């Protein structure tokens, strides 16, 4: 489950417990509800940090829940349902009127990697945890909005190839070197401190939230279009 805590201007969204934080319809619905709450309560100077407890940030979709359907058709329908359920999460992150940081102290795989990439910045551990897209290894194609997310958020085409076509398990230093994440630190405590420091620094800029969200959507036009977001021009400059 998720918890949401507000510390001053910072929102701290935490995946609790020591499990793999698999994304099933219940967890995705809970996440959407909390993101809606963040959006409603955000003020100038706010920022969001998403973090987790335990070994995993998130190990992707809940394949056990899909397999519990029993039949091949049922499994396929449940997988497609989870894929479609996560799309509004991507839309919600693109629309948030505040800076967002994924604070990775554990593994982020498949849908969990996608969840991390939804944020404006990613900070991860150097000593533990990997980024991994398992689809090529387990025999699943990649949804169109996943592809758009990777294409528009990771500029290095060779990094995208290695992640999506080779199933590379990318550790912190390599992820920084190849432009996938912004920074890597030794240990959980260091990652959390760095995430809060970045969030506070970004919040101090006191940007107009509506403008910030529209610039973000414009920065990722293909992804925004696929998840159904429009884009508008705001002309109220602070001179």
From TrEMBL:
EC number, UniProt record: 5.3.3.8
Recorded family membership: Belongs to the enoyl-CoA hydratase/isomerase family.
Lineage: Eukaryota, Viridiplantae, Streptophyta, Embryophyta, Tracheophyta
InterPro entries: ClpP/crotonase-like_dom_sf, Enoyl-CoA_hydra/iso
Domain of life: Eukaryota
Naturally occurring in which organism (per UniProt): Hibiscus syriacus
Gene Ontology cellular-component annotations: peroxisome
The name this protein goes by in its record: Delta(3)-Delta(2)-enoyl-CoA isomerase
Gene Ontology molecular function: any one: delta(3)-delta(2)-enoyl-CoA isomerase activity
Reactions it catalyzes: a (3E)-enoyl-CoA = a 4-saturated (2E)-enoyl-CoA; a (3Z)-enoyl-CoA = a 4-saturated (2E)-enoyl-CoA
One Pfam family linked to the record: ECH_1
Any single biological process term in GO: fatty acid beta-oxidation
Keywords: Fatty acid metabolism, Isomerase, Lipid metabolism
Pathway(s) of this molecule: Lipid metabolism; fatty acid beta-oxidation
């Amino acid at each position: 489950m998720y918890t949401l805590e507000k510390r001053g201007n910072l929102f701290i969204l935490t995946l609790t417990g020591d499990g793999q934080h698999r994304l099933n319809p219940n967890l995705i619905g809970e996440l959407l509800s909390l993101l809606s709450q963040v959006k409603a309560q955000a003020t100038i100077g706010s920022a969001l940090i998403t973090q987790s407890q335990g070994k995993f940030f998130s190990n992707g979709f809940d394949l056990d829940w899909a397999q519990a359907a029993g039949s091949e058709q049922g499994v396929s329908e449940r997988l497609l349902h989870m894929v479609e359920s996560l799309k509004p999460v991507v839309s919600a992150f693109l629309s948030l009127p505040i800076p967002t940081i994924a604070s990775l102290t554990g593994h982020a795989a498949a849908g969990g990697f996608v969840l991390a990439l939804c944020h404006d910045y990613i900070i991860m551990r150097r000593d533990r945890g990997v980024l991994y897209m398992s689809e090529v290894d387990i025999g699943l194609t990649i949804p169109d909005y996943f592809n758009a997310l990777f294409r528009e958020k990771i500029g290095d085409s060779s990094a995208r190839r290695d992640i999506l076509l080779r199933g590379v398990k990318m550790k912190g230093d390599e992820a920084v070197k190849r432009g996938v994440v912004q920074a890597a630190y030794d240990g959980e405590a260091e990652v959390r401190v760095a995430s809060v420091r970045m969030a506070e620094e970004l919040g101090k800029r006191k940007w107009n939230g509506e403008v910030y969200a529209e610039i973000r959507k414009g920065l990722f036009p293909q992804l925004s279009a696929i998840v159904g977001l429009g884009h508008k021009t705001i002309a109220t400059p602070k001179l």
